[in-house]
Design a protein that fits this description.
Number of domains: 1
Largest sheet: 3 strands, antiparallel
CATH architecture: Orthogonal Bundle
CATH topology: Multidrug-efflux Transporter Regulator, Chain: A, Domain 2
Distance between the termini: 62 Å
């Protein structure tokens, strides 16, 4: 019988989220999360062959939320 993995012993801040998971957490579209990553506002890791897998560290996501950049960039600018 396979052993259960104790995920509570993970190193804090090393949990990784996909773009979709990040969008669900922030209640925004995956497209907006991708734009934040492309602009450099939200740091992300590019993994795997061709670096096509994008993952966001929990610590980076928390810092992004605390920075206020998320709310500033969600609000349409007045032109």
């Amino acid at each position: 019988m396979p052993e259960k993995v104790d995920r509570s012993s993970r190193t804090p801040g090393l949990e990784l989220f996909t773009i979709m998971e990040t969008a669900l957490i922030l209640n925004v579209s995956p497209k907006l999360v991708s734009r934040w990553i492309q602009s450099g506002a939200l740091p992300a890791l590019k993994l795997g062959p061709g670096k096509r897998l994008v993952r966001i560290r929990r610590a980076e996501l928390e810092a992004f939320i605390e920075s206020g950049l998320m709310t500033e960039q969600r609000t349409p600018s007045a032109s």
